[in-house]
């Protein structure tokens, strides 16, 4: 099952190779799962041999989610039952341009749709997450300078023209918050604060089960909470934002003189291996994050704080100092401090959120049709 | 910072009267992706050929971990820890995936080939790199371009190289395959390898490179920190329109 | 029905079925000639057929190895003629022991291969070009060795003649061999299967394995039993089959064999992968020439004579035709040692069959040529299918 989900579609022979099971066993398992409606098989011809192509069974109708991070693009394709049928990640150049990124995303979607034996017109809606505040009503980036190359890009128009479907654009952290609240670590909670620590630092709020966006979509931008008014100038133009202290460039710069040029992933890996310098940098980041999050908690009092983004992969190393700082800076409650947990959806949280908003579009359209 | 794992000093190579490389210096560290870009005829392929032992430079020094070496053939280069994936991939189309992966480095039991161990390792290796093939027993000629490339990269990783040299890897790939390839390069980097990628597609290599070296007419026409260099600066250096701007770590004319 | 046929056709084209098409072809040839002349499938004729196949078959086996690296040696006939002449002259006129004579003849074959290998790897000239020069040279040598009479007869009772003409495996010996081969094959398969299962690799089911072994045993037992109703399995033929099995093993299970196939597939790729390409080429030329010499020695024994006609051009073409008809590609890198056995059986069956059916020499050449043409066509089609 897992093997099919990871790869979108594959033949029974491949399945045997990947899982290490005998072809006969695979064949039996596949038969059972087809009978119970989980898998779908179709005859195909790979390298001249007749073979049985195995895909996850899907209901008619697909939705796509795009997640643009500053250095990567993630595309996921799911059916209307929120079953992911294909997912793909692609590294992007720094400060790539919106039109180039969207172009690649659209091309990628085309190839992915093809890979699950579907046609592009089966895609009913698209959700897009970008790492900047978005005015959801118009779908444009509402704050200049945060995402060079994307300022003022009319994402719904560009993508809508290429794909011919409704396009819903939102801030990536909002989408991550939505996904974690609905499907991940925040399941069952009404009020969720999602903090995304990656290349940049972002945040999203789910209040009363709905994403809270604020006036122009800038709600939850915890990365730009000012923590040091004499600090360095941030890409947003202000001074001493949280991001200038715990964003990836800041962390990597701290390590540059001692460790040379590293990537955020290198830091996480080395910290896990016990490198003291990398561990220190991550725990310091946790403390700073905790202090900023505490302020939010004092204002909003969420049920849970979910930490996502690449740095969350450092686990307790980041969360432990965060909890300590939050506990020290929030009003003590009888039931104890707010829960702080790592996201369950990992790097896929934002793209899952994008799928969720796309699905919401589809079901709204469906209801309208029924009503009309 | 640690010593470069691979360094080239003042390497030159001519084909008759044409100077393909002229005094080129390269330094590559572990955990680093160096992209080499330039027009066709800029000397990219020759540079890769010199690094992979496929071509002998006329002049210059090559050192691996600060020890001078002579890369007389691809096999010698590999013995020094430099593995290459050639643009033509150098796979035998009639051999299957396992046979190609272990070609020239077969596992044996006694004097006979150990097919079982090779097949097992092949699946593991391809799995680690997330390279998908229908079966490891199909002839490589029957695979798609991306699958073949995955096999070629997997092969280069056998024998734990320190450096992997990739020549025009995205030339024949679709976008999804390119995405998979770029992710693969990131994975190689995080394994601690030094990676050299040549390409004429700026966008692709810019996404994964730490440093970008621009070759023009056989000379280094600028070296850039990939995280700050802009596409415009890089293009200018490739075409030689303007002197390199802010992102340049090292200008061609400065030396 | 049509779908089934086109499926099969596709698999024939892509070369996926291995030697099966040739087995089918052999069966077809046998059925046709049996229908024309009921004596064709008599055990007597089949024993003759196997005995006649040995010499040409050994030469074809050398061709198979050389074709694997994508090369052709047109002088194999001349080399076999030279080997025959050396064997005859040294043992009859100079009075050497026949064992020594044969070894010297094989040594000369080996030396010729070594020279060819050097020429090919140093000058990069395709084999079929410089072996033409070799053909003239070696033929000249053969004539010089044979001397003015141009023909030397070997005494009927010498060991070589006895071994290649009249020596047959005793029933006990042949059945012991059959039992050993079958047991060895089954054991090897079972060991491989259990090793694969131990490391979680897909393995052949026991049923398929049993079926495979049953087919092998049935072929062996059937063949030995039927030939046994006449004179039995000839020593020369048994040696030939053993050689085929040995070469097959070397091609599939040793690093040398892997290198040979890689070089035939893409020599440049093999070089970049670290295969010692030059050595592989030289070894293939050596195997080919040595096999040709051995084939010449066996032919001398069978004819009890060496003359100027030994190793004539027809022998070259028959051996190459046999290899290609057996399914070894002219384009290199693909084939099987067994194609030498099956191919030579087809070619010899056509020769004897045409004669038994009342046709003459010209008829024989025409039919063999037609079968050869079909084989080349299939080979070219298969190559295109693999590329396409």
Give a written overview of the molecule.
The complex is a heterotrimer of chains A (372), B (255) and C (388). Chain A is an alpha/beta fold and 372 residues long. Chain A folds into three domains: 55 residues, Arc Repressor Mutant, subunit A; 113 residues, Nucleotidyltransferase, domain 5 (2-Layer Sandwich), CATH 3.30.420.40; 160 residues, 2-Layer Sandwich (Nucleotidyltransferase, domain 5). Chain A has twelve helices and 15 strands. In chain A, helix 4 packs parallel to helix 5. The radius of gyration of chain A is 22 Å and the shape is globular. The relative contact order of chain A is 0.12. With 255 residues, chain B is an alpha/beta fold. Chain B has one domain: 3-Layer(aba) Sandwich (Rossmann fold), CATH 3.40.50. Chain B contains eight helices and 13 strands. Chain B has a seven-stranded mixed sheet, with helices on both faces. In chain B, a hairpin with a 2-residue loop joins strand 11 and strand 12. Chain B starts with 5 loop residues before the first strand and ends in a 5-residue tail after the last strand. Chain C is mostly helical and 388 residues long. Chain C has two domains: 219 residues, no CATH class; 66 residues. The two termini of chain C are 25 Å apart. The model of chain C has no long low-confidence stretch (mean pLDDT 88). The chains are: A alpha/beta (372), B alpha/beta (255), C mainly alpha (388). At the A-B interface, helix 2, strand 6, helix 4 and helix 9 of A face helix 6 and helix 7 of B.
